[in-house]
């Protein structure tokens, strides 16, 4: 679904504010009716209790949401009235004289209470501070390239031979490579700059290129692209001055291209860490949930908002959020119990859950945290605070999650995670009726590489293949490190013939990569077996079939791709 522009989001937020105002008018009409009934003589205790409880919830709702919709004064006055009613709600009998000498209705519903409650209506039209403070920030926030964007590498001011060599070899690693000069860099468009790119230059040009990149950074509000230089200086002073001038890495000649490719990848990924994440919001107040959703979407988050607690497990499975914002009081459902229910599922044990609540009582908050949530954000939450708080928590959650689900050498998904992904796609293609393919990929004669050139070289080869797969496959394909030198890939909505073509190109590209070893340069090949997921009853059967096809490929001479087929 296309994302809304800032202008569209602003229009929608204004619509929500208007709709909140109309609802608040209705709420206040209702409050007036309740006040009138409470003033009646001869009202039974049960009726009084029911009315006070409803008034309390109505005031609680207003207190938690009015500030978000630009009615902060109304919200804080509603909060005070809500707090006055609280002792009646908490007392054993709910209302009336409490045996232990607790409050009685007359102590709390004083003429002053009635007067203040009736005054709430006037606050609908008072000019008040808005919680939407961050409008001015948006233009200055750095534009961060999306994680899956193809990485462009600009070779700038390099000697002819080095430029030609790097263009060829880095293209084999899956980068889009161009040779340019400083003026070409200066003319890069905003669109290109918003994508992921790195610059490689010689050390003598670092100063001028670094200042050009700073200009682009200021002009387009991008984060600094990685600047890598080539050179042969080993002395501290020279290295210090290169770092000071803005270089992010120094590579000595002769260049070790797989290492260089790996460094480009890492530097780009480091800069991508500021990418906002996925957020699931559950708040039974639909307008409030929608407001939070729009504000976070405007800040670049991928947000899913629901209002019905019964949808939570389905929404979690679909959205797979980095964090969840959870309302505490949702009609007859409690957010605290919903958090406990979410933790029944092992996969959500580590999901950070942040309660959004008007509850200010620390002991109640602590009790709720003990039941399954991680943090409290007290309503009303300003837009600015919401965005920043969610940014920090998403970033941390993503970092922790990466450690848990990704292999440290290649940053690809770990064995158990890729297996789950294969199962998910198998279920999806049976449900949707499309064709998807699973591939098993294995490096050829890899034991010899390790034995002859050492494990360090072996590790470079594994990393280079991981990087190449990341670049050459679609962002929707899922790649995992299945075992030591074995990889598994899920290619959704892709037939085995299409997979043979794509992976054939990966085979060709990989065999052209040269690895520097103590005995000179070497190349390594790979073999792959593919099988269509929907041809099998289970994901495991499909995986075994891909493994079988890989075995056939190895037998047939390696260096290529073979599809599984039924044997006669
Ligand atoms: N450097 C390195 N080597 C690894 C890693 N994981 C597994 N290996 C090595 O990968 C090699 C796999 O060797 P084999 O399974 O015999 O297969 P092969 O030599 O590739 O032979 P074929 O698959 O038949 O082409 C073993 O030497 C493992 O030690 C790793 O993380 N780093």
From TrEMBL:
EC code(s) of this entry: 2.7.7.65
InterPro entries in alphabetical order: CheY-like_superfamily (IPR011006), Diguanylate_Cyclase (IPR050469), GGDEF_dom (IPR000160), HPT_dom_sf (IPR036641), Nucleotide_cyclase (IPR029787), Rev_trsase/Diguanyl_cyclase (IPR043128), Sig_transdc_His_kin_Hpt_dom (IPR008207), Sig_transdc_resp-reg_receiver (IPR001789)
Reaction(s) catalysed (UniProt annotation): 2 GTP = 3',3'-c-di-GMP + 2 diphosphate
Domain GGDEF per the UniProt entry, residue ranges: 434-566
List of residues that carry 4-aspartylphosphate: 327
Domain of life: Bacteria
Domain Response regulatory residue range list: 278-394
Entry's Gene Ontology BP terms: cell adhesion involved in single-species biofilm formation; negative regulation of bacterial-type flagellum-dependent cell motility; phosphorelay signal transduction system
Needed cofactors: Mg(2+)
One of the record's GO molecular function terms: diguanylate cyclase activity
GO CC terms in record: plasma membrane
A family per Pfam: GGDEF
Enzyme class: transferase
Keywords: Phosphoprotein, Two-component regulatory system
Keyword Phosphoprotein assigned: yes
The protein's name in its UniProt record: diguanylate cyclase
């Amino acid at each position: 679904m296309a994302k809304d522009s800032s202008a569209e989001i602003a229009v929608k937020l204004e619509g929500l504010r208007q709709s909140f105002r109309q609802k608040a008018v209705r709420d206040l009409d209702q409050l007036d009716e309740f006040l009138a009934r409470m003033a009646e003589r001869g009202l039974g205790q049960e009726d009084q209790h029911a009315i006070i409880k409803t008034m309390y919830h109505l005031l609680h709702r207003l207190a938690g949401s009015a500030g978000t919709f630009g009615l902060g004064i109304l919200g804080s006055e509603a909060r005070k009235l809500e707090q006055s009613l609280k002792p009646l709600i908490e007392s054993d009998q709910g209302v009336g004289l409490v045996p232990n000498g607790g409050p009685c209705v007359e102590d709390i519903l004083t003429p002053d209470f009635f007067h203040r409650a009736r005054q709430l209506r006037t606050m609908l039209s008072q000019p008040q501070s808005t919680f939407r403070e961050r409008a001015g920030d948006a233009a200055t926030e750095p534009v961060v390239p999306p994680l899956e964007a193809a990485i462009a590498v600009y070779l700038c001011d390099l000697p002819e031979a080095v430029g030609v060599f790097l263009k060829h070899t880095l293209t084999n690693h899956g980068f889009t490579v161009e040779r340019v000069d400083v003026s070409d860099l200066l003319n890069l468009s905003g669109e290109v700059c918003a994508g992921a790119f790195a610059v490689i230059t010689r050390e003598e040009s670092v100063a001028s290129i670094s200042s050009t990149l700073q200009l682009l950074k200021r002009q387009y509000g991008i984060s600094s692209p990685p600047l890598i230089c080539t050179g042969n200086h080993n002395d501290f002073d020279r290295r210090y001055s290169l770092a000071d001038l803005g270089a992010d890495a120094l590579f000595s000649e002769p260049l070790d291209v797989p290492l260089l490719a790996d460094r480009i990848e890492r530097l780009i990924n480091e800069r991508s860490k500021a990418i906002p994440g996925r957020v699931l919001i559950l708040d039974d107040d639909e307008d409030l949930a929608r407001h939070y959703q729009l504000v976070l979407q405007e800040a670049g988050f991928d947000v899913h908002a629901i209002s019905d607690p019964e949808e939570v497990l389905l929404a979690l499975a679909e959205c797979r959020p980095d964090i969840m914002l959870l309302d505490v009081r949702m009609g007859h459902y409690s957010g605290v119990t919903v958090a406990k229910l979410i933790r029944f599922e092992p996969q959500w044990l580590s999901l950070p859950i942040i309660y959004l609540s008007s509850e200010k009582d620390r002991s109640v908050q602590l009790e709720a945290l003990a039941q399954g949530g991680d943090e409290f954000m007290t309503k009303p939450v300003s837009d600015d605070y919401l965005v920043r708080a969610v940014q920090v928590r998403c970033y941390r959650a993503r970092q922790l999650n990466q450690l848990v689900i990704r292999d440290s050498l290649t940053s690809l998904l770990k064995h158990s995670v890729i297996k789950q992904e294969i199962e998910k796609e198998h279920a999806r293609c049976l449900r949707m009726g499309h064709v998807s393919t699973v591939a098993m990929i294995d490096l050829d004669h890899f034991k010899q590489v390790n034995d002859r050139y050492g494990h360090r070289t072996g590790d470079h080869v594994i990393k280079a293949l991981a990087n190449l797969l990341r670049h050459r496959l679609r962002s929707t394909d899922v790649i995992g490190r299945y075992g030591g030198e074995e990889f598994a890939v899920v290619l959704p909505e892709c037939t085995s013939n299409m997979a043979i073509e794509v992976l054939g190109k990966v085979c060709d590209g990989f065999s052209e990569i040269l690895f520097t070893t103590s005995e000179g340069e070497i190349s390594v090949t790979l073999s792959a077996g593919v099988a269509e997921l929907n041809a099998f009853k289970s994901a495991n059967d499909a995986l075994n079939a891909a493994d079988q096809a890989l075995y056939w490929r190895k037998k047939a001479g390696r260096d290529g791709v073979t599809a599984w087929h039924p044997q006669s």
